[in-house]
Every structure is written in C-alpha cells, then in structure tokens.
Design a protein that fits this description.
Order of helices and strands: HEHHHHHHEHHEHEH
Helix content: 40-55%
Mean pLDDT: 79
Low-confidence stretches: 4-37, 221-235
Largest sheet: 2 strands, antiparallel
Distance between the termini: 44 Å
Shape: globular
Strand order of the largest sheet: 1-4
Strand content: 5-15%
Radius of gyration: 18 Å
C-alpha cells in the first residue's frame, strides 16, 4: 500500500546543473514545516537543501506557478498540469499532496510551503517525519484518525492509478485485512501510534515518501517544462 502513485513518482525530468554549495544540509524537523518568508538561507537552514538547491527550487517554482495563472503561486490546476499535462485530471493522491503542501490552507502553494513540504521527501529527512506525513495523506477528513472509509478511498485510488480492476468483494477484503492488522485497539479507526507500529512492520509503505533525486545537486524539472519550451522555440 504505497503513499504516492507510481506515475507521479516516476515522472521524467529535465536536469539542471547548479554549483555546489558549502553550506551543509540540515535535517528537517516536524516543527519546521510552517510557511514563512522566502529567504534562501533560512529555508536552507530549516531543510536538507543547500542554498544553491533552494535557488534551483525557486526557478522550478517560478515555472510551475506561471504555467496556467501567472500569479507567482502554485494553484492545484498547475500542479495537476505539471504532472499530467491535464489540469482537469482528477487524482486523489495529488489532491492530498496539494492539501498538505498548502500548509496555511489558503488555496495555493507559496514558495516557503513548497520547499518545506518537498523537503519531507528528501532522503535525509528523518523517518518519523515521513511516517507522520504519510499518515496525514490517508487522514482525508483531518480527524487525526484513518477511518475505514478513508482507507477504502485510498485503496481505490491506488487501483485506479495502477490501472487495476478488482471486484468490490476483493476490495472489502483488503480493507478488512488491513484493519485487522493495524487497528490493535479494535475501535474501528487507526490512530498515529497504530500507524507507526504498522509502518515499522511494513517499511515498504514509506518507499515513495523518498525521492532519491533530491539528494543530487542536479535538480529535476518536470517533463512538461521541457516540452513547453520546445513547443515555444518552434512557434
């Protein structure tokens, strides 16, 4: 049961070389995931990214935030377009990712939110942060618990993303089996402690919570940027 759809995690990228920075990356902590000002040095001190990498992320952010609406903010449609070349495509995972990146819940992603939230997926980010973030992905209704219906919705989303079709009975069996294994208190919902224990036994759940390319000085741009620039150069 992965946390990010494979099509999102495996999207092709355009790499850009940036100069190495001597500033050592610092590990992200949970209390640093709050939106703030866009000072590159501050963002680098709060995340595993170096100043040079934050500067490159700013360039990526600028491209994403002007792909549809040129307002310097990433709208949900722009995030959809960046990953699928279709701003109307419905994707539960992407909706949840947007909601979590939009820390102050004002309907768009600011640069500070973008960097801090993306840092969760950095290989050097502590596992405890990734576990909590993954839990929030499944907590669709923000209740502090993963309920049966929420788990079912996420299972269905995984199947759709994987182009798999299972009968309703099989899906119910998957949900039931998961709850039997995870819901140790038997109260019909999964709390954070139960989730931590479950992930400890099934570490593969966090596989897609780490994006290896974030470790590289070469940072990647979504393929639509390359395609768009190619189209513009031929127009």
């Amino acid at each position: 049961m992965g946390c990010i759809p494979s099509k999102v995690g495996e999207n092709r990228h355009l790499s850009l070389e940036v100069p190495k920075d001597k500033t050592p990356p610092s590990e992200v902590t949970e209390n640093k995931l709050k939106p703030g000002h866009e000072d590159f040095s501050a963002l680098a001190s709060e995340t595993p990214f170096t100043i040079s990498e934050v500067e490159t992320l700013k360039e990526l952010f600028n491209k994403l935030s002007t792909s549809i609406v040129k307002d310097g903010l990433i709208q949900k449609e722009e995030l959809h377009f960046a990953l699928f070349r279709n701003s109307n495509k419905r994707n539960l995972f992407l909706d949840r990712m947007f909601d979590l990146f939009d820390v102050n819940r004002n309907g768009h992603i600011e640069f500070g939110e973008f960097v801090r939230s993306l840092s969760v997926f950095h290989p050097k980010t502590p596992e405890a942060v990734k576990i909590k973030y993954a839990f929030k992905l499944y907590d669709l209704r923000h209740t502090g618990y993963i309920e049966r219906e929420e788990l079912k919705e996420m299972v269905l989303a995984i199947l759709v993303e994987s182009d798999l079709v299972l009968s309703d009975d099989v899906i119910e069996q998957i949900v039931e089996k998961t709850f039997v294994e995870v819901d140790s208190q038997g109260d019909g919902r999964i709390d954070l402690e139960e989730w931590k224990e479950y992930v400890g036994k099934n570490p593969s759940i966090l596989k897609n919570m780490t994006l290896p390319y974030l470790m590289d000085i070469t940072l990647a741009f979504p393929s639509f940027v390359l395609n768009a620039e190619t189209e513009e150069s031929h127009s």
